[in-house]
Amino acid sequence: MSVDGEPSKDIHRPDHPSSVGWVAHQRVELFNDNPLNLEAGGSLSSVITEYETYGLLNSKRNNAVLILHALTGDAHVAGWDSAPEGDLREYRKFKPGWWDQMVGPSKAIDTDRFFVVCGNVLGSCYGTVGPSSVNPKTNKAWGLSFPVVTVGDWARHQAALLDYLGLDYVQCVLGGSMGGQVALELALAYPERFKGLIILSAGHRVTTQGLAFNAVGRRAILTDSNFNNGDYYDGPRPLSGLAAARMMAQITYLSEESMGHKFGRRLRGKDSPDFTLTGVEFEMESYLNHQADSFVKRYDANSYLYLTRAMDYYDAAAKWGGGILAETAAIIQARTLMVSFSSDWLFPPDLCRELVSAMCLARRPVSYVNIPSRYGHDAFLVETEQVRRLIHGFLATNAL
Amino acid sequence: MSVDGEPSKDIHRPDHPSSVGWVAHQRVELFNDNPLNLEAGGSLSSVITEYETYGLLNSKRNNAVLILHALTGDAHVAGWDSAPEGDLREYRKFKPGWWDQMVGPSKAIDTDRFFVVCGNVLGSCYGTVGPSSVNPKTNKAWGLSFPVVTVGDWARHQAALLDYLGLDYVQCVLGGSMGGQVALELALAYPERFKGLIILSAGHRVTTQGLAFNAVGRRAILTDSNFNNGDYYDGPRPLSGLAAARMMAQITYLSEESMGHKFGRRLRGKDSPDFTLTGVEFEMESYLNHQADSFVKRYDANSYLYLTRAMDYYDAAAKWGGGILAETAAIIQARTLMVSFSSDWLFPPDLCRELVSAMCLARRPVSYVNIPSRYGHDAFLVETEQVRRLIHGFLATNAL
Question: What does pTM read for this prediction?
Answer without folding.
Answer: 0.95
